[in-house]
Design a protein that fits this description.
Blueprint lengths: L8 E11 L5 E10 L4 E5 L6 H8 L7 E8 L9 E2 L5 H5 L2 E4 L10 H5 L8 H10 L3 H6 L17 H15 L3 E5 L7 H15 L3 E5 L11 E6 L2 E6 L1 H5 L4 H19 L4
Parallel strand pairs: 3-8, 3-9, 6-7, 7-8
Antiparallel strand pairs: 1-2, 1-4, 4-5, 9-10
Helix pairs in contact: 4-6, 6-7
The chain binds adenosine-5'-diphosphate.
């Protein structure tokens, strides 16, 4: 029986193999563990297996072999890891907030969107979450404030505004594990700074997994896991990995070259 949620869960993968139904194996024996409060980025080329790891953490699929577990590290004494096979999908999901680029906001009020996972929240709590997410200033200016309808029947929001509403939702939900799909869509630089700042507040004290698309924004993580073709081929701090030959330093080099071209196009060197 799993009634009570784990306050400080860690995540462990032990020799995990996985294939999507009827297709070839795409995860070939992945082992890692992430401690409560640790910030980890998943890096690798498209198709390397980043999303698959997230799908498995969310228990959208079950591993073919090996074990995935939540470890309760809130107690002084080490406790037995809780094997995913014995945990209901719902129990696992109650520990996790997602901030995904294409995450659904619903065609309803801002209030309901933010309070989605915490229906008992009062207006004050919702306002606090919106403030921490750097969203309050634009919400306040809307015709009906937090009661404004968004989406199909309501007003259209910009990409940066939608992201900040998702961040507010995750702040209010206050779950110990946060999974971030780093935005690839470009935001103007002021919005970018506001979103980054909101994300940093949200990440505080949480176990965070970032699916990294742009390497420049993950320089502050504790650890990078480098994936290639369903295998974990390297891991280390950003500076450790940048300093040695490998996929990460190669990707970093390409990105810097790309940025140089971009800067050159603005005649900034
Ligand atoms: P990434 O997120 O790093 O781009 P994915 O985890 O999406 O990589 O993909 C890992 C591998 O799994 C790829 O070979 C991909 O083609 C395959 N894959 C992803 N999703 C599915 C699916 N729903 N069904 C079958 N194969 C899939």
């Amino acid at each position: 029986k799993q009634g009570e949620l784990i306050k400080q869960p860690g995540i462990e993968f032990q020799d995990v193999h996985f294939s999507y139904a009827e297709s070839e194996e795409v995860m070939h024996g992945i082992t890692f563990s992430i401690k409560p409060g640790e910030k980890v980025a998943l890096v690798g080329e498209s198709g390397a297996g980043k999303s698959t790891i997230i799908n498995l953490i969310l228990k959208l699929y079950n591993a073919n072999s090996g074990t995935i577990s939540l470890v309760d590290q809130s107690r002084a004494k080490a406790t037995t890891p809780l094997d995913y096979t014995s945990l209901p999908h719902n129990f696992i999901r109650q520990h996790i907030s997602l901030v995904f680029q294409d995450n659904q906001l619903f065609s309803t009020t801002i209030r309901e969107n933010v309070a989605y996972s915490n229906l008992n929240a009062n207006s004050e709590e919702i306002e606090t979450a919106l403030r921490q997410a750097n969203a309050w200033s634009f919400v306040q200016k809307l015709p009906q404030g937090i009661k404004t309808e968004i989406g199909e029947r309501g007003i259209k929001l910009s990409g940066g505004q939608k992201q900040r509403l998702q961040i507010a939702r995750a702040i209010l939900a206050n779950r110990p594990i946060l999974i971030l799909d780093e935005a690839t869509s470009s935001l103007d630089s002021k919005t970018e700074v506001e979103v980054q700042d909101a994300l940093e507040k949200l990440m505080e004290g949480k176990l965070v997994i970032i699916i990294a698309h742009r390497l420049s924004t993950i320089q502050s993580v504790d650890r990078i896991l480098v994936l290639d073709d369903g295998k974990l081929i390297d891991s280390g701090s950003p500076s450790e990995l940048a300093g040695r030959k490998g996929i990460y330093s190669t990707l970093l080099k390409y990105q810097i070259q790309g940025n140089k071209k971009l800067l050159a196009s603005y005649e900034i060197y």
